[in-house]
Amino acid sequence: MRRLPPLRSLLMLVGFALGLLHCRPAHAYAWMIKNGFAKCDTCHTDPSGGETLTLMGRAQAEQLLSWGGEDRTELRGTSQFFFGEIPEPPDLRLGGSYRHLFVYTAPYEGAPSDLVSFPMQVDLYGWANLDLFVLGGSLGVARGIEGTAHVRGAQLNRELGAGWILLSRTHFIGVRLDRQTLLRAGRLNLPFGVRVPEHVLWAREATRTDRESDQQHGMALAYAGGPLRLEGMVIAGNFQLYPDRYRERGYALSGEYLIGNTSALGLSSLITRANEDRFTQADRAVRHAHGLHGRFGLSPQVALLAEVDVLKEGGRGVGYTGFVQADYEPVRGLHLMLTAEGLDQGASDAGGARSPGNGEPRLGAWASVSWHFFSHFELRLDALKRQESAFSSQVQLHMFL
Amino acid sequence: MHPIRPPSRRKLGWALCYRSGFVLGLLCSGGALGFAWGKLPQAAASENYPSIIDLQKGTECPRPLTRCLICHDTAAGGEETANRPFAVTLREYGLTEGKAGRKLDAALDALPEDVDSDQDGASDQTELAICMNPSGEELSEGPGFGCSVQRGRASRGSDAALSACALGLAVAWLLARAARAR
User: Fold this and answer.
1) For residues A354 and B83, what is the distance between their CA atoms, to the nearest angstrom?
2) Chain B closest-CA separation from residue A149 CA (Å)
3) Is B173 in the A-facing interface, judged by CB distances under 8 Å?
4) Among B66, B80, B154, whose Cβ lies nearest the Cβ of A357?
5) B112 CA to chain A: closest CA distance, Å?
6) Interface residue of A242, A245, A273, A348 to substitute, partner B, most B CBs within 10 Å
7) Were both Cys, which of A192, A257, A393, B37 would link to A268 (CB 3.0–4.6 Å)?
8) Cβ-Cβ contacts under 8 Å for A14 (sequence gap 6 or more)
9) Residue whose C-alpha is closest to residue A294's, from A270, A327, A329, A324
10) Does B113 touch chain A (CB under 8 A)?
11) Which of B145, B148, B156, B180 is the best residue to mutate to test the A interface, defined by the most A CB atoms within 10 Å of its own CB?
């Protein structure tokens, strides 16, 4: 096993000790709050969480995230980037994710069952600290997504058919104004709600704030100090789609306040306007989403996440969406999760019959098992039933570098 | 957690074997997944309805994603959003669920020539044959995807936004630098 340079080992230890002393935190796995990790920038380079890990994040991924981590008295070399095979330069943090998904859909109202498989994410990402500046981004590939309007929002090349598509979900440059404040410009995750990995959760889909492809270009100011975490973004539009009339402009902001070592309450707000909505083709489309969220560590084994958002978009009445997710970790690295969600996008102004999700409540439920069976690996099973949709189950293998 | 300690030579030997095996295992797993990727049917709009319509009508209509709006409220799709007039009509002819390309094919075959879902005077079959929308107002071209370097009148807003971002960053850098100097 390669020995890490003493300076890096020392930095890692100091980081870890400071983390324990100050209960400074992480997420993207937002349930980490039950371990006293309420803020995101301890384990992730992004102040609002997700993707690239800090050295502290690497250590936590080994001890708090992985199966058997509580028994580990030494930090293994394999916990590092690319299993320790490629050393990271001191000011550069690297990462990558491969998620392969198998989805089985049960027969429903005459439709036959269906089994599909596809790589959901094939990305590399990184973050560089250059004196006061930071530079970061992601680069990935996808194939056969010509029919998915949503994913293609992150497309870089002009491929039209079923060929390989190059994706960049984020890319930005930033400047640290002080230790707690970071200003960034580029393509960024929208600060809104609970940053969960389940990107198809209605709360993420209906507010268009997932980390899959809903990022937008703009400028964001993030602050994380004391019990407060804030990020506000001026949205300039998604410059990876054209022409300009489809680009949304406006703002998104999210704030969270710690009300204890393991509990936080937050609020989010988003208003955008596009000359034409890229999904519905509504003219002069103004979109609102405003909501409250909370993360609660009820015990070292149990976390509760919740979010409720009010929605309003052109051509529809007021709607809402939300979810509650309970996460129980009976042994380190094994998570049993139950999620309930609801959606009503509001009745169409054009009239017509109301249906679940369109003027009437639509409900859904997930039962999930997530097993971080080895450092860098996660196996996840989801059983999902939504009103007006077939029962489906998913198996996901996730490997991160 | 304790600091990383240098392993003994014996341990190093085992570690090397372990790591070689691990990396080999990783490569094999990657290969197996790649094989599965190639062999199993792909998701992502598993049944490409606009292509099926094109095939049946002998058309090559542009921007197929926009044509999702013939049946759906949103180009993002989803069974529960298939509420447009033509989707309601096709239900009467057997297309009662999503991901059913053959049923769409059969429903289009069974659709009489004179049915006019949006009551605009042109039958659904006629509108489909000339890349028009049988569900109502004509669809716009829809967005294109990928980086655009085209310039023109429409890009004034984007230029302003980009300039504001660049200016903001420069000002922030100057302020941070000044604060640091103090």
Assistant:
1) 10
2) 6
3) yes
4) B80
5) 23
6) A242
7) A192
8) none
9) A324
10) no
11) B145
Which candidate from A77, A132, A276 shows the least CB-CB separation from B173? A132
Q: Which residues contact A210 (CB under 8 A, 6 or more apart)?
A: A199, A200, A201, A204
- Hey, is the C-beta of B28 within 8 angstroms of any chain A C-beta? no
The answer to whether the predicted template modeling score (pTM) of the entire model surpasses 0.80 is no
Residues of B in contact with A59 (CB under 8 A): 1
Closest CA to A378 of A400, A356, A393: A400
Model ipTM value = 0.73
Q: Is residue B38 within 8 angstroms of chain A, CB to CB?
A: no
* Interface membership of B24 toward A (CB under 8 Å): no
A246–B68: do the CB atoms touch at under 8 Å?
no
* Nearest-CA distance B169 → chain A (Å): 7
- Reduce the secondary structure of A230-270 to three states and give it as a string: EEEEEEEECCCEECHHHCCEEEEEEEEEEEECCEEEEEEEE
User: How many angstroms separate the CA atoms of B98 and B91, rounded?
Assistant: 11
CA neighbor of B124 nearest in space, from B139, B108, B138: B108
Side-chain half-sphere exposure of B15, counting CA atoms within 13 A: 16
Q: Going by C-beta distance under 8 Å and a sequence separation of 6 or more, which residues neighbour residue B179?
A: A177, A178
Is the CB of A247 less than 8 angstroms away from the CB of B157? yes
Cα-Cα-Cα-Cα torsion B51, B56, B58, B59, nearest 10 degrees, comes to -40
Kindly identify which residue of chain B lies nearest to residue A144, measuring between CA atoms.
Answer: B44
* pLDDT of chain A, 401 residues: tens digit per residue: 344 444 444 444 344 333 333 333 334 687 787 777 777 888 888 888 888 888 888 888 887 888 887 777 777 777 888 888 888 888 999 999 999 999 998 887 777 788 888 888 899 999 999 989 999 999 999 887 777 777 888 888 887 666 788 999 999 999 999 989 999 999 999 999 998 888 899 999 999 999 888 999 999 999 998 899 999 999 999 999 989 999 999 999 999 999 988 899 999 999 999 999 988 888 899 999 999 999 999 998 999 999 999 999 988 999 999 999 999 999 988 999 999 999 999 998 877 788 899 899 999 999 999 999 988 899 999 999 999 888 999 999 999 88
Number of Cβ within a 10 Å radius of residue B63: 17
Closest CA relative to residue A204, chosen from A123, A104, A311: A311
Please tell me what DSSP assigns to residue A61: I
CB B128 within 8 A of CB B116: no
Residue A235 to residues A96, A173, A182, Cα–Cα distance (Å): 26, 15, 16
Q: How many CB atoms lie under 10 A from the CB of residue A324?
A: 15
